[in-house]
Specification:
By secondary structure, the protein is α/β, with parallel strands linked by helices. A hairpin with a 2-residue loop joins strand 10 and strand 11. It binds D-malate. D-malate binds next to loops. Its cofactor is Mg(2+).
C-alpha cells in the first residue's frame, strides 16, 4: 500500500499447504481452513445433523481423552488414518455417517490425517472458519461481512498440494469478488486458486474425482464421499472455531 493512501481492498493470502503457516500470519485476520476431502465436509455434515460441536484434536490419544472428559453419553469419537476408521472409534470420516440419529445433541471429537491438526494450531486467530465446497457461500458471506484481510489455508494432503482444497479456495475468492463485490489483492497462490476454479467450474466433480485424494478415496470405497464433497452449497452451515470447538454460527 502506498504511503498516505487509505487501504480499501481485502488482502487475501492463500496457502496451498499448511506448511508455511505461523501464528503471526493469522493475527487480526479472518482465517478459513479448507479440507474438502474430507474433514471440513464431515464437520459441516455433523453440525447440520445437530451435533453440539465438532472438536478437532491432534491424535487418537488426545481424542480418546477428550471423549472421556466429556462423557461417553455426551460425546462420540471419530476419525481416520489412511482414510479408514480408527479401531475402537465410533465413526470414521465419512459425512454420511453423521446423522441426527448418530450425533444429534452430541460432541463429535475428531482426529484426521491432515485437517484436524490445523485447527488445533489456529487458536490465536479469529474468526477461524471451516471451509468446504458444501458450505462455500456461507463462508464467503462471513469473510465479506468481517471485512478484514483474510488467510485461506488449504489442508492439502500429507503436507503437499491438493487440487480440491485449492479449487475450493478459488471458489471462495470468486464469490468474494463477484457475489460480494469485494476488491481483493491476492498473493500468487490465491491467483492460481482462482484460475483453477474458473477453468474447472463446469466440471468440478470430475476434476476432484480425478485428483489424488479423490482417486484414493474412490479406490477404498468412498467414492460417494467425493461426490458429496463436490456439491456446492449442499450443506449451508458455518462452522466457526470457539474455544477449540467448531460450532454452528447462525446467520
Ligand atoms: C484429512 O484430514 O486428512 C482428511 O479428512 C482425510 C480423509 O479422511 O479423507
Amino acid at each position: 500500500m502506498a504511503f498516505g493512501l487509505i487501504k480499501d481492498d481485502m488482502d487475501i493470502d492463500l496457502f496451498l499447504t499448511p506448511v508455511p503457516l505461523a501464528k503471526a500470519d493469522l493475527q487480526g485476520k479472518t482465517v478459513v481452513v479448507i479440507d474438502v476431502l474430507r474433514f471440513c465436509t464431515t464437520a459441516c455434515a455433523a453440525l447440520a445433523a445437530g451435533a453440539r460441536a465438532v472438536i478437532p484434536t491432534d491424535g487418537p490419544g488426545e481424542a480418546g481423552e477428550m471423549r472421556m472428559k466429556l462423557g461417553a453419553d455426551m460425546a462420540v469419537v471419530a476419525g481416520e488414518r489412511n482414510g479408514v476408521k480408527l479401531e475402537s472409534f465410533d465413526f470414521g470420516n465419512s459425512p454420511a455417517e453423521f446423522t441426527k440419529a448418530t450425533v444429534g445433541g452430541k460432541h463429535v471429537v475428531m482426529t484426521t490425517t491432515n485437517g484436524t491438526g490445523i485447527f488445533t494450531r489456529a487458536g490465536m486467530a479469529g474468526p477461524v472458519l471451516a471451509g468446504a465446497i458444501v458450505n462455500a457461500s456461507k463462508v464467503a458471506e462471513r469473510v465479506a461481512r468481517e471485512g478484514k484481510d483474510a488467510v485461506i489455508v488449504c489442508s492439502g494432503i500429507e503436507g503437499g498440494f491438493s487440487i480440491e482444497d485449492t479449487i475450493c479456495g478459488g471458489l471462495l475468492i470468486h464469490q468474494l469478488a463477484t457475489t460480494h463485490s469485494v476488491a481483493t489483492t491476492l498473493n500468487d497462490a490465491g491467483s492460481l486458486a482462482l484460475l483453477l476454479f474458473r477453468s474447472n467450474k463446469t466440471a468440478l466433480k470430475q476434476t476432484i474425482e480425478q485428483g489424488e485424494h479423490g482417486r484414493f478415496l474412490t479406490s477404498i470405497g468412498f467414492g460417494g464421499d467425493v461426490e458429496t464433497a463436490s456439491a456446492i452449497d449442499s450443506m449451508p452451515v458455518l462452522p466457526v472455531l470457539k474455544d477449540g470447538r467448531l460450532v454452528l454460527e447462525e446467520s
